[in-house]
Write a structure and sequence with these properties.
The relative contact order is 0.15. The chain is 29% helix and 25% strand. The radius of gyration is 20 Å and the shape is globular. It folds into 2 domains: 154 residues, Alpha-Beta Complex (Quinone Oxidoreductase, Chain A, domain 1); 149 residues, Rossmann fold (3-Layer(aba) Sandwich), CATH 3.40.50. The chain contains 10 helices and 15 strands. By secondary structure, the protein is an alpha/beta fold.
Length: 351
Amino acid sequence: MKTHEIVIPGPNQPLQIRERELGSPGAGEASIATEATGVSFAEVQMLGGRYPGQPAFPFVPGYDLVGKVLSVGPGVDPALVGKRVATMTQTGAWAENVLRRAEELVVVPDDLDPSEVDTLIVNGITAYKMLHRVARVKAGQTIVVHGAGGGVGTILVQLAKLAGVHVIGTCKPSQREAVERLGARVVDYTRGKVLDDTRALAPEGVDAVFDHVGGDSLRASFAMLRRGGTLVSYGSASTINARGSAWTPILVNMARALLWSLRPGGRTMKVFDVWGRGSFGADSAFRPRRFWREFREDLGRLLALFMAGSLRAQVARRVPLLDASTALEAHVAGGFTGKIVLETTARFGVA
């Protein structure tokens, strides 16, 4: 089977479209026709060679996908053929067809919009795990969500509100109305007074802060916490143009987490990675069975909330897969709410 895929050929080089032959699924694998695949900050980092653990150039990016199973290899239930499925990939999803392990797939109802479902995969899993498996928030508590208008942020706000949690969300002025509709009180981070403005809304401090910015933002985020509060660091967007190893900001954050958590006051900092790297929990490399079990459980919960109308998908823009460069440029430009999604002709039933 021939497939087209998007390739990052080298650091900060224009994306390329490559045609290649995709083999048949091997033992335990499924061949999938991609319908939708997301665009995230991870791909922006990968373009510049700044994503920790990314493959060597050239490679196919793409962190998650929704698609239809075309065929399966030995050891896989044939009933999976024809089913719509979703999975998280880290790389390789920006392609018309892919091969994935069957155990990594979650079956998705046929009547759901593939692009809307895609917004729930890496963004939804990140939000759900941080909220319920890491910070373990409780009803009546107050949290701060940085980047509340983004792909992870919009889901974090909604999940927190569903759990009875009070939310303060930072965002751009253009995102304010959308974030307020989700139920958060808004802090305009472009004013440069995030800590002061947050303290005005929560004078006694907050119970948890979710920070994807990194760098100096972490100090302000930690200062927002009340006694017993938790800062969850899940990215380092502010260091995308830094020099040196892409791992350096992560290692610095881990050192901060250790040192700051030892300070008097009962506040803690945790570094979150959606793959569990560096954690003692569901690590995808060392505890893959637990990791994928939790993935299936958590995505199942998210899909149930979505189908019940309790969780809204935030598709900022739909772009054809082969026009991925435009989508990536739009992501870098910012100003959108939710997630940009790439769609293939399979999304519309076109061969």
